[in-house]
Amino acid sequence: MKRTDWILMACLVFLAAPVMAQCPLADLTGDCFVDLADLAMVSQWWLAGCDLSNQACNGADLLVSGSVDIDDLAVLISAWQTGILLPEDMVYIAAGTFPMGDSFDEGWSGERPVHDVTLSSFSIGRYEVTNGQYRDFLHSALSSGTITVSDGIVYGTDDQQPYCDTSDSDPYSQVAFDGSEFSVRTKAGRSMANDPMVKVSWYGAAAYCNWRSGQEGRQPCYDLSTGTCDFAKNGYRLPTEAQWEYAARGGLSGQRFAWGDTIHHDRANYRANSTAYSYDTSPYPTGTYHPASEDGIYPYTLPISGFAPNGFGLYDMVGNVWEWCNDWYGSYSPDAQTDPVGPITGISRILRGGGWNSSAYECRTAYRYALEPAGRLGMAGFRVALNPAADR
Asked: What is the residue range of 293's domain?
């Protein structure tokens, strides 16, 4: 086939291409969708020599021919606007296998045994859900009659479960309610709208997931009356515990944290304790909170994306706030697993990642914490996930 014929055929494929279930080869930016950003990368490396030293021109040499040329452009055209078009705040995580648990044998028994887990692809929130985002949900839920407020606590009308506290019921909450509408508070002279939501229960996190699904025309995952998630739906949900740990590790295995084996206050918002933990390399005295957060008014959260992301482009997987997972708590099995979702039922749901008042020990990616699903902490929030390769 002549090169001109190949390019013509590629253009015809481009015009009729359906949305793909997995990330296309021509996705060079890692957002799982082929668009102008990928074309810009091809243009950047056009006719350049490609080898191992520049990682095949950062992947722009799609056919690994040694240069970026018309053949690579044809491949990109053939995949134009295919893939999974995710919201900008969601990150696609490719399928993979990793050793889950405490590989240092330094945690508590619930973090062991280390076992291999294989996960299908999934998507997870780039950031923790903020006070501002949760306020928007509360506004909508109040107007639709799906929540009520009693003694400063927000309850779901469908499940009668507590969703979150307002500042009237707990000063750690940064969401206020004046009897008719919700607002985000100001703390020490700054708006808390871009700080992660706290004092939210597992039920409140699940309700938010269903609401966001509805906002985007997706199928709700949760039956709020039973607390169960239908993983066949394409709506938002909480990540499974295994998905959370895989995402938090950022592509590394066998490390304490997403970036390596030590932690420092330039990496995360946590409470220093270098006296007890040699891998806490913070220069601040034991018991000291992050200096940017310690304003004398709890909670000592910081705005999302204040630290460098991990290898998957995710922010605050360590510290700032604990994050609810979908799973009920259960002991680990030594057996290899594929897409585990935890026990069918239980007493407590999983929280991961540590918070602003957590030590380095609790911020390890292997650390597990559990709380009854109605529980609401001043250092616990959540981020959302989407089912494997979910698209509308």
From this structure: 87-392
Regarding whether 148 and 68 lie in a shared domain, the answer is: no
**What type of residue sits at position 32?**
C
Local confidence band at 388 (pLDDT 50, 70, 90 cut-offs): low
Q: In total, how many domains does the chain have? A: 2
Question: Which residues on adjacent β-strands are paired with residue 117?
Answer: 98, 337
Residues 220, 363, single domain; the answer is yes
Number of neighbouring beta carbons within 10 Å of residue 242: 23
- Asked if residue 115 lies in contact with residue 382, where contact means CB atoms within 8 angstroms, the answer is no
3-state secondary structure of 45: coil
Residues 6 or more apart whose CB falls under 8 angstroms from that of 186 comprise 192
- Amino acid identity at 370: A
Enclosing H/E stretch for 74: helix 70-78
Is the predicted pLDDT of residue 203 greater than 70, yes or no? yes
Is 289 within 8 Å of 320 (Cβ atoms)? no
Q: Examine the domain organization and report whether 241 and 109 are in the same domain.
A: yes
Residues 48, 168: one domain? no
* Sign of the Cα pseudo-torsion (32, 38, 41, 42, in order): positive
pLDDT tens-digit map of 247-284: 999 999 899 999 999 999 999 999 999 999 999 999 99
